[in-house]
Amino acid sequence: MTVTSSGSAAIDIDHLKVSYGNNRVLHGVSLSVAKGEFIAILGSSGCGKTTLLRTIAGFQKASGGAIRLFGRDVVDMPPEKRGMAMMFQSYALWPHMSVLGNVGYGLRLRGVSREEIRKRVAEVLRMLNLSGLEDRKVTNLSGGQRQRVALGRALAIEPEILLLDEPLSNLDAKVRLQLRTEIKTLQSRLGFTAIHVTHDREEAMTMADRIVVMDAGHIAQVGTPKEVFDNPVSPFVASFMGAENTLHLDVRASGAGIEVKAEQGHAVQWNGDVPVGPVTAYFRDDVASLGDPSVAIEGSIVLPGTITQRTYPGGHYRYVVAIADRHFTVTDDDYHELDRPVGLRLPLASLHLFPSEQSQGGFHA
Amino acid sequence: MTRPSFFGLLLIAPALAMIGALFLYPLGFSLAAAFTDGSGNPTLAHFAKAYELYSTDILFTLFIVVTATILTGVVSIAIAGILTLGETPWLVAILRNLYRWPLFIPFIVAAQCMRTFLAKNGLMNNSLVAMGIMEPIQATSLLDWRGIIITFVWKQVPFVTLMVAGAMASVDRSTIEAGRNLGASRPRVLIELVLPQVAQTLLVGLVLSFVTMLSVLSVPMMVAGSQPTMLTVDMAFRINSYGDYATANALGVISYAISGIAAWIYLRHNVKREVQA
């Protein structure tokens, strides 16, 4: 699951444990991040993702384990010696300083001369489309500009590692999308290693090379966005990645393959690799489709139901389909009448199937 | 329109009367007395006399109060800084519990304590000698200008620290972390990032301390006693020994003028901040 631990890894986290008093928040997290990689740590609030980031930065003491940056153990090092840069959710700009003062502060700490600071800050600001704002007070900037200044402040010291603590979540949707692209572009251009904490799935998917899904102080899954999205390893990851509809199915061996049967609907023969016994299927709105309830389709289970609600969020319709006493949300490109019998088609290959006992133990986001 | 304002006036009338009778009238009276002779003619003779007799004490007072204010500021910033940025939980806890105590001790008790603590054979020198840090022959009394400053600082530090530490606690924590993250040591974070954000509160605390110290009689009287001394002692002396209210009033006006300068510095800074914001 993780890249092999070696001295070449930019960040190597080894069985990291963190506690607040008697309350353990991280239970031995291990993760290896390669140089130049963009990692997103994804999880719901309280899962320990921010604690993990703050422990890497040095603001939170570890109670066990190691953090190695390029092979050097920093677990007992104060934050100012670790040589990383960080972006904060609240921007964390210094209100008594100008843009120049904020962006140039890291350089000032490194003893760079006044003229050199001005020159390098100007370069950074040009990169961020903030040219000419050097002498502006940061309190007179918009949210997007402030977070750009914070990004500039972090990048001015040319860090090897950039930590991002939900830096986009205070911004409005349009600016957020812009900055997402800008950060990603700068990262590929400058080649720094980035760890981005977020609870926004789409943000993680679009920005990261690999996603780390965290759940209750453990890493639930690590993989490329596609791996995590298409092949979640647990019910928690499946529902966190958007497969929020669940359906109980019964899987039995039958001939060469298996036979899958829902409470309603007909049994379907299949040759996929699935656990035998009672299973719970997790699926996203968009893998299901609607059709004639009487037509059997190979490799799909068809559940008879009625459409109870239809909305048009744009691009496709969204339906609520009642099957017995359950309701499912389904997106479908075609227009269907309300209160008509309909078949909910679920292609077995697109369902995430887990043995039912396991799914009961999982946490649902 | 008239009815509510009439009732409003009625409501604040007792308070207004108290301020008038107990503050404005005596203030006006002493101001008038400072600038008039026995028969009511305007004169600056009282000021000439006050200057002639007490010019050294005026400078001495200024020196004591300014020095004590600066030291109070430095010590308060250090304590508030440790409380805000300290990473040794037990040290922070002890400091947090200890630093407020002098707030509850009156100036006169503080002065009495300092008499026994700072004297030639006082607790401080005896302890230093007992610990072998100092030879008995080196022991000197600190019961002079140094004693006054030490007592003032000891008494005012908790007050200013209380205000400054409160302001530091409400500073966005991530602005501190951003500084350390970029490589700033804690002292640099305190001076360059935290202090400018609480400068306003620090200034208020220091101006209030300045005015308080200017008006304390017991400390200079008990701790130092001899010449030169502070204006409060001189005023008490003019009144108690000579019944010379005129010169005492002139010295009072000089005290107002000194605290007026402090108030002016404060207001000017305040207005500048508001214009910027």
Walk me through the topology.
The complex is a heterodimer of chains A (365) and B (277).
Chain A: E1 11-20, E2 23-33, E3 38-42, H1 49-57, E4 64-69, E5 72-73, E6 85-87, H2 99-109, H3 114-127, H4 143-156, E7 161-165, H5 173-190, E8 193-198, H6 201-207, E9 210-215, E10 218-223, H7 225-230, H8 235-240, E11 245-254, E12 257-262, E13 268-270, E14 277-283, E15 289-291, E16 300-311, E17 317-323, E18 326-332, E19 341-347, E20 352-355, H9 356-361
Parallel strand pairs in A: 3-8, 3-9, 6-7, 7-8
Antiparallel strand pairs in A: 1-2, 1-4, 4-5, 9-10, 11-12, 11-14, 12-13, 14-20, 15-19, 16-17, 16-19, 17-18
Helix pairs in contact in A: 2-3, 2-4, 3-4
Chain B: H1 2-35, H2 45-85, H3 89-98, H4 107-118, H5 123-130, H6 145-169, H7 173-181, H8 186-214, H9 218-224, H10 231-242, H11 245-276
What does this 3D model show about the protein?
- The complex is a heterodimer of chains A (365) and B (277).
- Chain A has 365 residues and is of the alpha+beta class.
- Helices cover 25% and strands 35% of the residues of chain A.
- Chain A has 9 helices and 20 strands.
- Chain A has a 6-stranded mixed beta sheet with strand order 6-7-8-3-9-10, sandwiched between helices. In chain A, strands 13-12-11-14-20 form a 5-stranded antiparallel beta sheet. In chain A, strands 15-19-16-17-18 form a 5-stranded antiparallel beta sheet, with no helix packed on it.
- In chain A, β9 (210-215) and β10 form a beta hairpin.
- Chain B is mainly α.
- Chain B has a single domain, classed as MetI-like (MetI-like fold), CATH 1.10.3720.
- Chain B has helices at 2-35, 45-85, 89-98, 107-118, 123-130, 145-169, 173-181, 186-214, 218-224, 231-242, 245-276.
- In chain B, α6 (145-169) packs across α8 (186-214).
- Chain B is globular, with a radius of gyration of 23 Å.
- Chain A binds chain B through residues 57-59, 78-86, 88-90, 92-96, 105-106, 109-110, 137, 139, 150, 153-154, 157, 163, and chain B through 172, 174-175, 177-185, 188, 192-193, 196-197, 199, 276-277.
